[in-house]
Design goal:
84 residues, mainly beta, five-stranded antiparallel beta sheet, two-stranded antiparallel sheet, 0% helix, globular
Length: 84
């Protein structure tokens, strides 16, 4: 974490292979939350995505050749911004 201005710590939970949910109560306001993930692995088959699920959760998933997989988010950059 380089900088956290969310007012708390996001708790990450693995819900299934390649699928992770970040939870922080009331942190991810509708229409004001912006998320991006940039793959750290040089393999073009690896895809990671992050998006807002609700006011309390964001979700990130990782696939390798369209298969959900763990251990492929190595060196992946994730940024979550919530605008006032």
């Amino acid at each position: 974490v380089l900088k956290n201005t969310l007012g708390g710590t996001v708790v990450w939970t693995r819900t299934s292979p390649g699928l992770y949910v970040g939870t922080l109560a009331g942190a991810f306001t509708a229409n004001k939350t912006w998320c991006i993930s940039i793959n750290g692995v040089g393999n073009h088959e690896v895809i990671s995505r992050i998006h807002r699920v609700s006011n309390n959760q964001v979700e990130i998933y990782a696939t390798d050749t369209n298969v959900f997989d763990d251990d492929i988010l190595i060196d992946t950059n994730v940024e979550i911004r919530v605008y006032p």
